[in-house]
Amino acid sequence: MKNKWVWGLIAVMLVTVLAACGKSESKSEPASASPSASASTANSGSGNKKLVIGFAQIGAESGWRDAETKSIKDTFGNDPAFELKFSDAQQKQENQIKAIRSFITQKVDAIGLAPVVETGWESVLKEAKDAGIPVFLLDRGISKGNEDLYVSFIGSDFIKEGQNAAQWMIDNLGDAPTNIVQLEGTVGASAANDRKKGFEDAIKDKANFKIVYSQTGDFTRAKGKEVMEAYLKKDKNIQVVYAHNDDMAMGAIQAIEEAGLKPGTDIKIISIDGIKDAFQAIKDGKSNVTVECNPLLGPQLKQAILDYKAGKTLDKWIKSNEDVFFGQKAIDALPNRSY
Ligand code: GZL
Asked: Where are the stretches annotated Disordered (predicted)?
């Protein structure tokens, strides 16, 4: 009888020890955790080494940003040859820098970065370069003179987007006296700086177009509404709102309606991104034009990484193809918009 007890005890101890060993191998570490040395060569089980990609995203400030995040997660998440480590910086550069340092420690195979602002990247990108990890910029750039710190910038021509926004106004409002409120994107962001430059350069010789107020709405709906509300309390003699993204324009539309004015008629609405809500607003007569800025950059990022790993030379700027939507063209396109 005693023997049975002893054997039973040994069996229980054996099962417990084996179960404990099995658990430590299946533990998966989040991007920001301190890594194990082998993290960068995750095995796809078929013997081939996965490419481990670290992506430092800005946050979730707009519909555009959400569409870009979905594109990245879908692209890498559905490909067994890749493992994606994704971090959301909640709009803070220091969180993006921390994430990049974590990716370097984990010895990832490549780093993707959507830089929230243009400046302050030199030292952390030099650390990535010294670690032999290629960096790809997505959708926003960094200040000039740092081209050696990244392989390619994959994104739009923001100056052209600003010019396209102004061109609609020039083509449709002619030489009528026009007071403009400009809702700017995040302070210091390349998308904001260049959309401002493109728009203002395009109208600098047109005396009838006057920017009477320019203020950041930080690319968010809430802030765009807040800034517009405050301005309308001071002055309703505004003919155009130019918003650096559709989300701020949607916020401004709400503020204009609440002030008893008709957006799209009393005050023309011009914005950039091409999210579905902007197309719907044009259909509803509440907005006038949206300049497309492609957020579906996941496939281009994946291709750039594969090309780089295959030893190909990549363009320093991989441009997105984009269009301008207004009137019937915007209404016809609405059903097919994917974000
Ligand atoms: C543009 C991107 C901008 C979008 C905004 O490439 O960086 O940031 O226009 C987003 O909607 O917040």
From this structure: 26-46
Give pLDDT tens digits for 20-57.
443 333 333 333 333 333 334 454 444 578 999 999 99
Q: State if residue 62 touches ligand 1 by the CB under 6 angstroms criterion.
A: yes
Mutation probe of ligand 1 site: the residue of 183, 216, 221, 293 with most atoms within 8 A of C-beta: 293
pLDDT score recorded for residue 4: 56
Please tell me the CATH superfamily of domain 49-156+295-321, with its number: Response regulator (3.40.50.2300)
User: For the chain, first and last CA: distance in Å?
Assistant: 71
Q: How many residues does the chain have?
A: 339
Give the residue, out of 190, 218, 244, 245, with the most ligand 1 atoms within 8 A of its beta carbon, to mutate for a pocket test.
Answer: 245
- Residue 158 Cβ inside 6 Å of ligand 1? The answer reads no
- Cβ of 91 closer than 6 Å to ligand 1, yes or no, is no
| Number of C-beta neighbours around residue 310 at 10 A | 7
**pTM higher than 0.70 for the full model?**
yes
Would 49-156+295-321 and 158-293 be classified into the same CATH topology?
Answer: yes
Instruction: Identify the CATH class of 158-293.
Output: alpha beta
Distance CA 135, CA 112 (A): 6
Reported as half-sphere exposure (CB side, CA atoms, 13 A), residue 286 has a value of 17
The residue whose two tokens read 């006296």 is 177
Q: Is 195 in the pocket of ligand 1 (CB under 6 A)?
A: no
Mean pLDDT of 123-129: 98
64 lines ligand 1 (CB under 6 A): yes
> Cβ(156) to ligand 1 under 6 A?
yes
Tell me which residue has tokens 């210091």.
188
The per-residue pLDDT for 33 is 32
With a 6 A CB cut-off, is 245 part of the ligand 1 pocket?
A: yes
